[in-house]
Write a structure and sequence with these properties.
Elements: H1 11-15, E1 23-24, H2 28-37, E2 41-46, H3 51-61, H4 64-73, E3 75-80, H5 85-99, E4 106-110, E5 116-120, H6 134-147, H7 149-166, H8 178-191, H9 208-221, H10 224-239, E6 253-254, E7 262-263, E8 266-267, H11 268-285, H12 288-304, E9 315-316, E10 319-320, E11 323-324, H13 332-338, H14 341-350, H15 371-378, H16 382-401, E12 408-409, E13 412-413, H17 414-431, H18 434-451, E14 458-462, E15 465-469, H19 472-489, H20 493-508, H21 542-557, H22 560-579, H23 585-596, E16 599-604, H24 610-620, E17 627-632, H25 647-650, E18 665-670, E19 673-674, H26 681-689
Parallel strand pairs: 1-3, 2-3, 16-17
Antiparallel strand pairs: 2-4, 4-5, 6-7, 8-9, 9-12, 10-11, 13-14, 14-15, 16-18, 18-19
C-alpha cells in the first residue's frame, strides 16, 4: 500500500512511495507526530540519479524487517535534496561537523524540534568496513534517545550552535584589491593536476566555475598559464569517459584521476556550466573543437532533456536495469554487429575499445590518441577517419537507443533551468545561432509563466504543478540568465523582468545585519537555523550568483544601489577567497568583474541588417567577460518626439543614442562616459582594445 509520498511530485520521492516504510515528506505533520509520540525523526536525503541512494533503498527501505524497526522507533522523513537545498544544506553541514565527511544518501537523526544529534551517509544491511548494519544503528539510536537523553540533548545543542556559526560571515576587508585575485590564482595553480587536468585526485569533478575564473584571470592579466590550465582540463574531460562520445553531454564526475570511469548520472547543471565554459574557451582560443563539444552538450539537452513546453529536465540516472553504466558501455562484438568491419576497426582504435575492456569486462569509450596518430597507425587519411567516426557515432547512438534507457528525473528546477537557459543564451550570442536563441527564449517564457505567474517564484514544477517557494539561487541565477538572454535577443522585457527579480531578492533575502543574503526568504518556513550556503560547489552559491547578477544589473539600470549591495557581499567574503579559492570560483568571477570596471557597448541599428551584424560580430569574436551589451533598433527619439516605450528609462545606456548618417553606430563607454561613436567594424575593434 503506498505511503504518504504517493502524493508528491518529485520523481525521487515517488520512487519510495511503495516502500513499507511509513515515510513522511518534509512537512509540519511529521514533526508534530514526533512531538506527540516523543520519537526522534529519521531524516533520509537523496536524489533520483544517486546510485547509492538506490542501493540503500533496495537493501533497507524495501526490507520488511528494517521497515518495521523504522516505523516502530522513528518518524521517517524522506527529502529530495534537489527540491529542498535548504534542508540538505543544514543537515549536510551537521553530518560533516560530526564525521568530517558527507554525501548521499544522507542519514540524519533529529530531535522532534528538528535539531540533529547523530548522522552519516550510507549504512549497509550487514556490518562491514567498520560500519554497523543499518538495523543495528536504528536500535542503538533508539536506545540512546530513551536511556541517555541528556547526551542526545547535549549533542543536539552543540550541533545547533555549530550550524548557527556556519551561517556567520567573517569580518569584511577594507578594500577590494586585485591582489586578492592574484593570491586565489596562485592557490589554484598549486592545486592543479598538471598531468591529468583538473583539480585534486579521485574522485574528480569538472569544476566549471573555477575554470571560468581562470579564463577571466587570463583576460585580465594575459597569464597564458591560466588559459593553458583551462584548455588542458577541458581537453582531458572531452577525451575521457566522463564525456558521452555518442550522445553528447557529460556525466557527473570520474571515479579515477584519468577522467576515464564516470559516475554515470548526467545532471542538468553540470552540462549547463560546462557548455558555457567550453563556449568561452572557444572564444578565447578560436579552437573549433571546443565549440563542437559545447554544441554537442546543447544538442544533447535539446534532444533528451527538454520538455515539449521548453522546460529542461533535471537528470538522467546512472543505472539501467539495475546496473550502473550498462546503457553506456560496449563490447567489441556489439560494435562489430552495428558497424561494417572497416568502420568498426577504425572506431575501436580511436575510442580505445579492447577485448578485455576497461570497466567490468566492457568498454567505456575514450580517446587516448589524436586523429592524426590513429589515422597514420590505421593506414587511412585523417579525412577518411573523421568520416568513419561520424558514421559510426550515429549508428551506435541509434543502436544504443534500443537499450533500456536510464530513468529520467523530469522535474523542472528553476535554478538549474536558469543555468541551462544562460548556456543557450550564451551560445546564441557567441555563435549567432537561432535554434539556441529560440530554446533560451522558450525556456524563459516557460519559467516566468509557470513558475512565476503572479510574481512569486517557485522552486520546482512537474506535471503542471509548481511548488516550494523559490530560494536565493533560483532568483539570482534566473535574474542573471535573463540579462544574458537580453544580450542574445535585445528584447528589453528580459531586463525588466530581471530588475523585478533583483528587487525581490533585496526585499526578501537580504540580511539586515550584515548585508549579505540568506538562502531562504524571510517569510519562508522556519528551520532549525536559517541557512546560508556560501561555497560554489558544484553550482554557484546563492550569494555568489546574486553578487554577479547585481553587478551586471547595476550597469544596465545605472542604479548604484545594486552595485553597493554586491560590493558589500564581496568585502564580507573576501577572506574566504584567499583561503579556499577552489570553493569560490563564481564569487572570484564576480570580483574579477567588479575590479575590471566593465565596458559598456551600445549599438544602434537594426539587428538583422548587415552593418549592425558586422558590429555585433566584432563584439563576439573574442572572449570579453567584463562587458555589457545593449542595442536599440531605432535609437533615442529626436527632441520633441514621443518618448516611446520607456526603454531608455529602463536601460539608460540607450538614452540619447542616434545612428550616424543612417548607419549602424556603436559606442564604447565606461560608467556612462562614452568615447566617440564609430560605424565601422575595424573602428569598433580598435575602441574595444583601447585602454
Amino acid at each position: 500500500m503506498p505511503n504518504r509520498l504517493a502524493d508528491q511530485t518529485s520523481p525521487y520521492l515517488l520512487q519510495h512511495a511503495d516502500n513499507p516504510v511509513n515515510w513522511y515528506p518534509w512537512d509540519d505533520d511529521a514533526f508534530q507526530r514526533a512531538r506527540d509520540d516523543d520519537r526522534p525523526v529519521l531524516l533520509s536525503i537523496g536524489y533520483s540519479a544517486c546510485h547509492w541512494c538506490h542501493v540503500m533503498e533496495r537493501e533497507s527501505f524495501q526490507d520488511p524487517e528494517t521497515a518495521r524497526l523504522m516505523n516502530d522507533l522513528f518518524v521517517n522523513v524522506k527529502v529530495d535534496r534537489e527540491e529542498r537545498p535548504d534542508v540538505d544544506s543544514i543537515y549536510m553541514t551537521a553530518v560533516q561537523t560530526m564525521t568530517g565527511h558527507g554525501g548521499w544518501p544522507l542519514t540524519v537523526f533529529l530531535t522532534p524540534d528538528g535539531a540533529p544529534f547523530y548522522g552519516g551517509t550510507y549504512f549497509p544491511p550487514e556490518p562491514r568496513h567498520g560500519l554497523p548494519s543499518f538495523r543495528q544503528l536504528l536500535v542503538a539510536i533508539d536506545g540512546a534517545y530513551r536511556q541517555r537523553r541528556d547526551e542526545v540533548d547535549e549533542s543536539a545543542a552543540g550541533l545547533r550552535d555549530a550550524l548557527v556559526n556556519s551561517t556567520r560571515l567573517h569580518a569584511p576587508v577594507d578594500e577590494l584589491e586585485p591582489e586578492i585575485l592574484d593570491q586565489a590564482y596562485q592557490g589554484l595553480a598549486k592545486a592543479y593536476d598538471h598531468e591529468h587536468g583538473g583539480f585534486g585526485g579521485a574522485p574528480k569533478f569538472p569544476q566549471p566555475v573555477v575554470l571560468e575564473f581562470l579564463l577571466r584571470h587570463y583576460v585580465r592579466t594575459g597569464n597564458e598559464d591560466a588559459l593553458g590550465m583551462t584548455t588542458h582540463a577541458l581537453d582531458a574531460m572531452a577525451r575521457g569517459g566522463i564525456h558521452d562520445h555518442l550522445g553528447g553531454g557529460f556525466h557527473r564526475y570520474a571515479v579515477d584521476v584519468h577522467w576515464l570511469v564516470p559516475h554515470f548520472e548526467k545532471m542538468l547543471y553540470d552540462n549547463a556550466l560546462l557548455a558555457r565554459v567550453y563556449l568561452h574557451a572557444f572564444q578565447a582560443t578560436g579552437r573549433p573543437d571546443l565549440r563542437r563539444v559545447a554544441q554537442e552538450v546543447l544538442d544533447y539537452v535539446l534532444r533528451e532533456m527538454t520538455s515539449p513546453e521548453g522546460a529542461f529536465y533535471s537528470a538522467q540516472d546512472a543505472d539501467s536495469e539495475g546496473v550502473e553504466g550498462k546503457f553506456y558501455v560496449w563490447t567489441p562484438d556489439e560494435i562489430d554487429s552495428a558497424l561494417g568491419p572497416e568502420d568498426a576497426r577504425l572506431f575501436q582504435r580511436y575510442y580505445g575499445v579492447t577485448a578485455a575492456g576497461n570497466f567490468e569486462g566492457r568498454n567505456i569509450l575514450h580517446v587516448q590518441r589524436d586523429l592524426e596518430t590513429v589515422a597514420a597507425d590505421a593506414g587511412v587519411s585523417v579525412e577518411e577517419l573523421e568520416a568513419a567516426l561520424r558514421r559510426s557515432r550515429d549508428a551506435l547512438y541509434q543502436a544504443r537507443s534500443s537499450r533500456v534507457w536510464p530513468a529520467l528525473d523530469d522535474k523542472v528546477l528553476t535554478a538549474w533551468n536558469a543555468m541551462m537557459l544562460q548556456a543557450f543564451a550564451t551560445a546564441a550570442r557567441v555563435l549567432d545561432h537561432d535554434r539556441y536563441r529560440e530554446a533560451a527564449s522558450r525556456n524563459a517564457e516557460f519559467l516566468l509563466r509557470q513558475l512565476r505567474p503572479d510574481g512569486q517564484l517557485s522552486r520546482t514544477w512537474r506535471s503542471g504543478v509548481a511548488s516550494i517557494d523559490g530560494f536565493l539561487e533560483d532568483h539570482a541565477l534566473l535574474g542573471d540568465a535573463l540579462l544574458t538572454l537580453y544580450e542574445a535577443t535585445f528584447d528589453p522585457r528580459w531586463v525588466r523582468e530581471a530588475r523585478a527579480i533583483g528587487d525581490t531578492i533585496l526585499a526578501r533575502f537580504r540580511d539586515a545585519d550584515d548585508g549579505a543574503f540568506y538562502d531562504t526568504a524571510a517569510d519562508s518556513q522556519q528551520l532549525v537555523v536559517r541557512p546560508r550556503h556560501v561555497d560554489d560547489n558544484p553550482t554557484p552559491a546563492g550569494n555568489s550568483a546574486a553578487t554577479l547578477f547585481f553587478l551586471r544589473l547595476s550597469v544596465y539600470t545605472g542604479e548604484q544601489r545594486y552595485e553597493d549591495v554586491a560590493r558589500h557581499v564581496l568585502t564580507s567574503m573576501a577572506g574566504l577567497l584567499r583561503r579556499a579559492p577552489l570553493a569560490f570560483g563564481h564569487l572570484l568571477a564576480a570580483l574579477e568583474y567588479h575590479l575590471a570596471s566593465p565596458q559598456e557597448i551600445v549599438i544602434v541599428g537594426e539587428p538583422g541588417a548587415a552593418d549592425t551584424r558586422a558590429l555585433l560580430d566584432v563584439v563576439r569574436e573574442t572572449y570579453r567577460p567584463n562587458t555589457v551589451l545593449a542595442l536599440s533598433p531605432t535609437g533615442s527619439p529626436e527632441p520633441g518626439e514621443a518618448a516611446g516605450d520607456g526603454v531608455a528609462e529602463l536601460i539608460p545606456l540607450l538614452a540619447d543614442r542616434r545612428p550616424i548618417d543612417g548607419r549602424a553606430t556603436a559606442w564604447v563607454c565606461h560608467r556612462f562616459a562614452c568615447r566617440q561613436p564609430v560605424t565601422g567594424a575595424d573602428e569598433l575593434r580598435a575602441e574595444l582594445a583601447a585602454p
